[in-house]
Amino acid sequence: MAIWLTENSKIIVQGMTGGEGTKHTRRMLAAGAKVVGGVNARKAGIVHEGLPVFGTVKEAMEQTGADVSVVFVPPVATKAAVKEAIDAEIPLCVVITEGVPVHDTTEFWAYAQAKGNKTRIIGPNCPGIASPGASNAGIIPADITTPGRIGLVSKSGTLTYQLMYELRDFGFSTCVGIGGDPVIGTTHIDALQAFQDDPNTDAIVMIGEIGGDAEERAAAYIEENVTKPVVAYVAGFTAPEGKTMGHAGAIVSGSAGTAQAKKEALEKVGVRVGKTPSETARLMREIMQSR
After folding, report:
1. Domain assignment present for 139
2. Which of 53, 104, 162, 231 could form a disulfide bond with 283, CB atoms 3.0-4.6 angstroms apart?
3. Whole domain around residue 148: which residue ranges?
4. Predicted TM-score of the model (pTM)
5. Assigned domain for 173 exists
6. Is 247 designated active site?
7. What is the pLDDT of residue 29?
8. Main-chain dihedrals φ then ψ at residue 35, nearest 5 degrees
């Protein structure tokens, strides 16, 4: 059992014929994911990496039964690619592209809502989603962990990989990299709700970053709605005030948006927060060993 991405998911890759799309299509196939085709209007009708290339997402879905799209297109083309996926009503669209203008993300997110939220967007600027042993949609390495009963939701790609590796002896149901841009599709809260509802997820790891209030809102949601144990890590304890930090685009001012403020909000609702990724893994290990 997994959330959003299962062994039966059929994946298409928008931008499959490009360099990154080709490389990661190969990796997804090697991981056992059911990649069934690609989309590139200028190269429709060719076969690439042994897979058919279609002119549109709608055509790809009609011909293959695809229910997941992974987007590997340049930032300038991302808005149009995601809107096309939304128009085709594909259930899941995973946007890997980094450097998408925030205005564009805001526009296609609003477009998805106006169309009835029939397409779940993960990203942009994210590593994707992996259900170990079942499927992999994005750039998350497939060989660093095992199937298990921990759910992981993270803003950071590299910290996603580190926690997956450090807890590989317990394994994961699904790992979701939501991305750290100021505007994203799927949020911590969305993933927390899905993991809470998943009978095969026993505990949840949540990774946040400085800036914004997403972690504080997640804490409020956990207090009201989540009964499973949650451990967390917030990147940025040593970040200086008033400086934009990393891909999160986070500006920390006073106590607002600091790692310490987020840590306190989470601990107030019973979430155990590690000061380092390794300490976070140790806290989760303790929970799993006690079950």
Report:
1. no
2. 231
3. 144-289
4. 0.95
5. yes
6. yes
7. 98
8. -85, 125
